[in-house]
Amino acid sequence: MIPKAEKKRCAWPDDLNRLITFSRTYGSMIASDKFEPAGFKLPLGLKDNRLLLAAAEEAAVPMPMASLVHDRFVAALAQGLGEADWAAIARISYQNAGLKGVTK
Q1: Is 59 within the bounds of a domain?
Q2: How many other β-carbons are positioned within 10 Å of the β-carbon of residue 74?
Q3: Please, are residues 76 and 92 in contact by the beta-carbon 8 Å criterion?
Q4: Residue 31 is part of a domain; what is its CATH number?
Q5: Angle between helices 42-58 and 64-78 (to 10 degrees)
Q6: Is residue 60 classed as helix, strand or coil in its secondary structure?
Q7: Quick check: is 3 in a domain?
């Protein structure tokens, strides 16, 4: 979506560096199944996901993974995880994999 939305390519390295930092932070949360206290609550993640999907639709860019993440957000809210960090959507994946003992 970045090239289609006319974002400057020179910003991509910075974006990738932020993604690496992001992955380290949230990767450890998911691995340890610790989503409280929330750094970024799940409803805020859902809001940002909706904004992303709206921008993608406007640019006519399919975002199938963002749609999948949206469904995980909604499922996590239905499971009562609204006060957890948005990374708690991983618990939905745990449950889908039959790993019910991993979740709290």
Answers
A1: yes
A2: 14
A3: yes
A4: 1.10.1040.10
A5: 150
A6: coil
A7: no
Domain contains 1: no
What does the alpha-carbon distance between residue 84 and residue 89 come to, in Å, rounded to a whole number?
9
pTM above 0.85, yes or no: no
In the Cβ-directed half-sphere of 62, how many Cα atoms lie within 13 Å?
1
How far is residue 68's CA from residue 78's CA, in Å, rounded to a whole number? Answer: 15
Q: Does residue 43 have a cis bond before it (omega within 30 degrees)?
A: no
Question: Is residue 34 in a domain?
Answer: yes
Could you tell me if 65 and 52 are in contact, meaning their C-beta atoms sit under 8 angstroms apart?
no
Structural domain containing residue 65: 9-102
pLDDT tens-place string over residues 3-12: 666 655 556 5
Report pLDDT digits (tens) over 28-51: 888 888 888 888 899 999 999 999
The number of distinct structural domains making up the chain is 1
Q: Do 74 and 80 form a contact (C-beta atoms < 8 A)?
A: no
